[in-house]
Write a structure and sequence with these properties.
- The complex is a heterodimer.
- Chain A is globular, with a radius of gyration of 22 Å.
- The longest helix of chain A is centred in the N-terminal third of the chain and has 37 residues.
- Chain A contains eleven helices and no strands.
- Chain A has a domain of about 190 residues: Orthogonal Bundle (MetI-like fold).
- By secondary structure, chain A is mostly helical.
- In chain A, α3 packs parallel to α10, α6 packs antiparallel against α8 and α9 runs antiparallel to α10.
- By secondary structure, chain B is mainly alpha-helical.
- Chain B has a single domain, classed as MetI-like fold (Orthogonal Bundle), CATH 1.10.3720.10.
- In chain B, about 75% of the residues lie in helices and about 0% in strands.
- Chain B contains 13 helices and no strands.
- Chain B starts with a helix and ends in a 6-residue tail after the last helix.
- Classes of the chains: A mainly alpha, B mainly alpha.
- The interface between A and B is large, with 43 and 46 residues.
Chain lengths: ~290, ~325
Amino acid sequence: MVSEVQALVKRLIPWEELTGKEKVVLVACLLLIGIQLFVSILNLTPYDPTKVNLDERFSPPSIAHIFGTDHLGRDVFSRVLAGFKISIYVAALSVLITAAFSVPLGMISGYVGGFLDRFLTFVMDSFYTLPRLVLALLIAFLLGRALHLNALAIAVATIPSFFRVARSVTLSVKERTFIEAARASGVSTKRILLKHISYHVRIPIVVLSALTIGDSIYLLASLGFLGLGVEPPTPEWGTDLATAREFITSGAWWAAFFPGVAIIINTFLFLMLGETLNIILNPLTREKPY
Amino acid sequence: MGLSLRKYILLRVALIIPMAVLIISIVFFLMRILPGNPALAILGEEATPEAVEALMEKMGLNKPLHEQYIDMWIGILQGNLGNSLRTGGLVLEEILSRLPISLELLLGGYIIGNILAILLGAETARRGGLFDLVGRSYSILGYCIPVFWLGMMLQIAFSVNIPIFPVQGVISPMIQLKRITGFYILDSIISGNFDALIDVLAHYTLPWITLIIWYSAVNSRVLRADMIEVLNRPFIITAVAKGLPDNVIVYKHALKNAIIPVLTIMGLQFARAIAGLILTETVFNIPGMGRLLYESILDRDYPLVQGLMVFFVAIIAIVSLLIDIALAYIDPRIRY
C-alpha cells in the first residue's frame, strides 16, 4: 500500500526532473499553506481570536500583540491566523462544487458537439461576461450570509471558467487518433469520456483549481468587505477589513494592514502553486526542447 | 468571404443582443428562483402576513413568473426599470444620477492604467534584467493585492497620517458647485469654478491611483509576453538591420503587432474593471454606481439591484462591442 502511494506520487511529480527553482517554489508553497492550515485548524493562535478585551482597544503592535489589537481589543495576529481556516474552506469547497458540476458538463459539451455545444457555450460565454464579483455578489445577496452559502455563490460564479477549460481540452483531444481507435474498437462513449478524455482533462483542471482557490480567497474577502461575507465575530479577512475601514481615521493601521497582507500572501501562494503545477504536471511543457 | 467593416459591425451588434437578453434573463430568474422572500427580507421577520402580502403586491411579486418576466422586458424597452423601494424614485433616474461619477473614475483609471500597462509591458520586454524583474514583480503583486485593501492603505498613508488628500467623498461640503452635466470635473470647468475643480481632483486622486495600479498590473504582464514574442520575429531583425532607432522599432513596429491580444484582454478585463469600481467606490465612499449597488444590497432594494445589473450588463456589452470593432479596424484579418 505504502509503496503504491509512493509510486503514484512519483509518477505525478517527477521530482528528479525538476529544476532547483521549481522544487523550492513547490516545497515553499505547500509548506506555508500546510503551516497555516495546521495552526488554524488546531486553534494554535496565541489568543482566542474572538475574545473581547476593551482595556486594550487599538493597542499598536507590541511584543504581546505582534499585529496589535482591533477596536474591541481582539488580537489581530490571532484573527489573521484563524481567518485562514475560513478562507481555505470556502475557497476549496467552492472549487469542488464548481468542478463537480462544470467539468462533466464541459466534457460532454465538447465531445457531443452540435447544437448542445453551441447552446451551452453561448450560455457560459454570456455568464462569463459578467464580472465574477458581480455574479457572486448577486447570488450571495439572494442566498444570505453563511459559510456554505458564500461557497455556493463563489462556485456558481466560477462555473464558466471550468466549463471552458474542460470543453477546450476535450475538443483538442477528441480528434486525436487514440480516441478514434477507441471508438473504432467499440468502446462506449461513456467509457471514452470517463477513461480516455478525463485523463487529459485532469491536469489542466488541477492547475486551474489551484489558481482558482487563490482567486476565490480574494473573492470571499471582497464579499466580506461588501458586507455579504461570514457574520462577525467569526474571523474572516474581508469582514475584518470592512470593520477596520469604519475606524480608519483612528490611525490604527494595523487592524487593516495585516488581514490584507494575509490575503495577498495566500493569493500569491496559490498563484505560484498553480503555475508550478502547470509546469510539473504537464508532460508537454516538461519536455526539454533540446 | 470577406466582410466589410460596416457589415462586421452590424453582425457584432446583432450578436450582442441575444447575449444581453440571456444575461438579464439569468439575473431575473436567479433573483426569483433562489430562496428568500424579498418582501419579508425588507420588512423583517416580525412583519404581519398582510403587510408582506401588500408589499409583494406593490412589487408585482405575486404575479406568475412569466408575467413578471414579460413586465420586466416591457419596462426595459420603455426605459422603465421600476421604482426604488428605499427612495421611491425611479430606478433609472437613481442610476443615471450616479453614472457620471462612476464614468469619471472609471475612464481616468482605465485609460491611464492601460497606457501605463502598455509602457510597462513594452519597456520590461525590451530592457530585461533588473527592470524586467521589478516590472514583473509589480504585475504579480498588483494581481494579488485586493483593490479595497490598496485603497485603504492609500487612505491611511495619504489622508490620515500625511493629510494631503481627503479621506472620502467627491467634493468638500463647503464648496458649492452648480450641477450642469452631472460630471463633477466637467461642471467645474464649465462654470469656471477652479476651487471646485482642485477640490474634486484632490478627491479623485487616491481612487484613481488605486484603479490605475490595479488595471496596469495585470495588463502589463500580458503585453510583456506578446512583446517578447513579437520582438523575436524576423521583421524586427530587418528593422534593426535597416538602422531604425530603438524607440521606433518598439513603439511603432512591435507594439502594433503586440497590441491585438492586449485589446482583447482589455475587453475581457473591462468586466473586472467594473468589479474594481464597485470596491473602490465603497472604500472611498464615492456616490457612484458601485456604491449604489453596495447600498442597495444592504437595503435589500430588489428593483434597484436588478436595475443596476441590467445597467452593468449593458455597459459591459457596449464596451466589448466597441473593442471588437476597434480590433477589426486595426487588424483586417479578424473580419475574414
